[in-house]
């Protein structure tokens, strides 16, 4: 049987395919229109050509930076900074959330401070961070740590607080000590919630890393690359750096979605 016969035998499948193709085409329509508008603006006059660098110039700059070392040095610096702050923030967040979930005294002592600081935008803490820790690597990393810390604390606390009481009863029957109860019963039961917090923290860490590089200009990084290009009136380099930030953010988002689906699969059975 040929495909035409199949389509005739299953008209509903053919009808379902057409809207799907239209949706995919419509999703590409806006980016295409934006590119056309950008190209049109870049050829109007000198001022517009500076603000909207011609696409061919951006592509040539992108190719040159990909072949050179400058872009890769800055990407590596931003990723390394993000990883360091992310790991520290996640570790501290899990420890703090677990402490508040398992100790009423800790929840009463730490909880109000945590919820108070969580309401303050990170940008509002920048002046204090720069005053106390300077504008170097430590200040940048601390911004990333805080961005990663908040969602992990909340999800760890909620995950451990919501553990089924029957699990705790089984742990009591087995006479498990506090450490074994935490590692054998509580953390495995709270793992989905903790993982959600970790996956939420990753994009926050990346955005905060680039923002900290824009605010604290010392050292390599994509944020510093953008500022240097702005000082040198290199709009093409700025566009390439922004594209690099966006591409890496998209990769991290895809990674988070893949991991969350991987861990959610067994629970749906």
From TrEMBL:
The keyword ATP-binding is assigned to this record: no
Cellular component terms per the entry's GO annotation: plasma membrane
Species this protein is from: Paraburkholderia lycopersici
TM annotation in the entry: 48-66, 78-101, 122-150, 185-207, 214-231, 237-259
Cell membrane among keywords: yes
ABC transmembrane type-1 domain segment(s): 75-256
CDD domains with a match to the protein in the record: TM_PBP2
Highest taxon, organism lineage: Bacteria
GO BP field: cellular response to sulfur starvation; transmembrane transport
Localization terms from the record: Cell membrane
Membrane topology note: Multi-pass membrane protein
Protein's recorded name: Sulfonate transport system permease protein
């Amino acid at each position: 049987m040929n495909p035409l016969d199949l389509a005739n035998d299953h008209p509903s499948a053919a009808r379902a395919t057409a809207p799907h193709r239209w949706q995919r085409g419509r999703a590409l329509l806006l980016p295409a229109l934006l590119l056309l508008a950008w190209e049109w603006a870049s050829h109007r006059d000198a001022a517009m050509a500076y603000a909207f660098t011609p696409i061919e110039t951006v592509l040539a700059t992108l190719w040159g930076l990909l072949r050179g070392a400058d872009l890769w040095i800055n990407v590596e610096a931003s990723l390394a900074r993000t990883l360091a702050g992310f790991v520290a923030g996640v570790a501290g967040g899990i420890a703090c959330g677990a402490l508040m979930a398992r100790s009423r005294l800790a929840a009463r002592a730490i909880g109000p401070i945590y919820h108070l600081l969580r309401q303050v935008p990170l940008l509002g803490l920048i002046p204090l961070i720069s005053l106390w820790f300077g504008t170097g690597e430590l200040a940048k990393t601390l911004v990333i740590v805080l961005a990663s810390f908040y969602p992990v604390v909340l999800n760890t606390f909620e995950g451990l607080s919501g553990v089924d009481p029957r699990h705790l009863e089984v742990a009591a029957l087995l006479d498990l000590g506090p450490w074994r109860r935490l590692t054998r019963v509580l953390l495995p039961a709270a793992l989905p919630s903790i993982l959600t917090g970790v996956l939420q923290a990753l994009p926050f860490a990346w955005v905060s890393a680039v923002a900290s590089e824009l605010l604290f200009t010392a050292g390599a990084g994509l944020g510093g690359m953008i500022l240097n290009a702005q000082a040198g009136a290199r709009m093409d380099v700025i566009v390439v750096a922004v594209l690099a930030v966006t591409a890496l953010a998209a990769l991290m988002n895809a990674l988070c979605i893949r991991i969350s689906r991987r861990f959610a699969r067994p629970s749906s059975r």
